[in-house]
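hi! just following up on the protien thing from before. the input was this:
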Amino acid sequence: MKKSLFLFSLLLLFFLPFSSQTRTSKNQGPKPPLTQAHTELISYGFPIGLLPASVQKYTLNQTSRNFAVDLGGTCKITLPPDNYLATYSKRITGKIEQGKIAELDGIRVRAMFRWWSITGIRSSGDNLVFEVGMVTAKYPANNFDESPFCEGGHSSS
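and the predicted 3d structure came back as:
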């Protein structure tokens, strides 16, 4: 009995530190710094997760509200909640106003075995409405609370 209790104690001492390290390392992933582009999204009523963490440059024409976001290269991301694969061009452009992004160019999503361009995004209460031409899809805005990292790094194309 003493021998089995001793072995059990040794096993606990050995495995306990590793199990707690694994748990905390998953929950404490690095948070990307907020860029000017991410801050602008918040000021217009959008979550920061609409843009990847790799934003390098952002410009906004204060009069026309036309914007450009430059990434380090093209970027692939899996979008929540349905795990659609999205690609971001190295430059994303559009027009932003309170609760609405229009004339969007540079974000494509793969759905139903085809690539679709997201042409606009609207904020509607606690939801975001993604526009693909005349078709729309609504998702909870809190699915985009964190800015994602590009999968597999950037591509220069």
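The CA atoms of residues 116 and 127 lie 20 Å apart.
The first strand starts at residue 55 and ends at 60.
cheers
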